[in-house]
Amino acid sequence: MERRGFFKMAAAAGFAGATAQSGAQVLPSPQPPVIERSNLNQPGRGKVFALITPHLDDGPIFAGGTVAKLLNEGYTGYFIRVSNDEKDSYNLTLGETVLANEKDAARFVEVAGLKKRYDLQYRNHGLDDISRMEIRVRLIFLFRLLKVDTILSYDPWGHYEENPDHYVTAQAVEAACWMSADHLDFPEQFEVGVKPHSVSEKYYFARGPQLVNRVVDIAPTIKQKAAYIASCKTMIGNMVRSENDSLAARGLRVPAFAGNSDAAIDAYIQAAFVERDKQIGAKYGLEYAEEFHYIGPDHSLDEYVKAHAERI
After folding, report:
1. pLDDT band for position 20 (50/70/90)?
2. Is the CB of residue 68 less than 8 Å from the CB of residue 224?
3. What are the respective helix, strand and coil percentages of the chain, to the nearest 5?
């Protein structure tokens, strides 16, 4: 993920101003967004979600607070990483970068309390050269195998996305969600015991403008989110050191970002991501928030079924 552009204008404008520009623009919506808050009654018990992103840090950065909320509410969570993240490190070789980010992915799963991760291992920044059908088939199998109820991923309708890994993943996820419920899509998979399975909820996030109809209050989980982001040490360290290089080229420095220490990484997370979530929350009267294009279960026949269904 190319997030190092977050602070290209930071030196002149100050970091708070730069983070405000990094948040996704909200497209006009016919209804005010629904505010989703934590539910201590564990409504997610027995349910399964999958976080599906091309890169390790996409989920922690854009949906980490919501991931923590769902886990706290009883969901079982899985992480599906589509690329091998070979392009995101500071002065490491491709092979060293793959290994470092693989170790960080394991750390993220452990820190978050996810049940398991699946690495599809496609080349980083090359997903637009891979058959979307191939990615889709693999996702369909995993949705059926894991009985996924809810997914979190990039918005296939997000605007002005420059990274092909993001929009290719988003399109494959969207198509896989509905095809996984069809008994005529890849029926050979049923030979190993999986069955058609419908994904009923989608939380889509975006870097650019998107339709926002769901806002999740992440004040109770903001510390968990920061820990998730910090677990992506190779990638966040790359952002910190690249930012320091950019500032130095303009004759500037931010002392809190000096070096590649845990303290520098934590300072960067607070300035870049926690502050951004604070500004998003302020738009909705919340302390911290994440924005989504949410697609929920289809309830169009509920009343008819209630009135006419019989026990069999």
Report:
1. very low
2. yes
3. 50, 15, 35
